[in-house]
Amino acid sequence: MITTVDEAFLRRAIAVAANAVALGDAPYGSLLAGPDGAILAEAHNTVRRDNDITAHPELKLARWAARELDPDTAAHTTMYTSCEPCAMCGGAIVRSGLGRVVHALSTDQLVELNPQSGAWPTVEQLGPALFDEARAPIDAYYRP
Q1: DSSP count for the chain of H helices, then E strands
Q2: pTM, full prediction
C-alpha cells in the first residue's frame, strides 16, 4: 500500500527527474529515504552525459547504499524512483539489501509514453557448459 508519505517522496523523485531534463539528461530520478524518513541520497540518470550505459539513478543509489549503509539500515531504507527499475537495477537493489522500492511509472506505462524504451533486442544466451572447469574457481574461493 502506498501511503501519503510515499507519495511525497515519489513527488521528490519526479522532481529530480524533471531537474535531470533541465540539465540535459534523461528524465529519470531516484532517492533513498532512511528508516527515520530523512533523504539519504538522490541521483538522476546520466547515461548520455557519462557515456555509461549503467548510469541509471537506481543503480547509482544501490551501489551507494551497499558501500555506505550497514545491512540493518539498508534493510529499513526505501528507494523512491520515478520509473520502475529495469532488470539491471533490480538486481543491484536486491544485492544492496534495500528494504523496499516504490516507483511512480511502471515499465509498461513508460513504454506507452516512449515506445523506444521497450525496443531493446534480445541477446542469445547459451549454457550452462563446462561445469567441472567453471566450478574450479568457485570451489577455490568458497571451499579453500
Answers
A1: 7, 4
A2: 0.93
The pLDDT tens digits of the residues spanning 52-110 come to 999 999 999 999 999 999 999 999 999 999 999 999 999 999 999 999 999 999 999 99
How many residues can be counted in the chain? Answer: 144
**Any catalytic annotation for residue 58?**
yes
- Which residues pair with residue 80 across a beta bridge? 31, 102
Choice among 42, 58, 124, 133 that is catalytic: 58
The residue type of 65 is A
Cα-flanking dihedrals φ and ψ of residue 142, to 5°? -90, -20
CA geometry: angle 47, 48, 51, nearest 5 deg: 80
Measured from the Cβ of residue 28, the count of other Cβ atoms closer than 10 Å reads 27
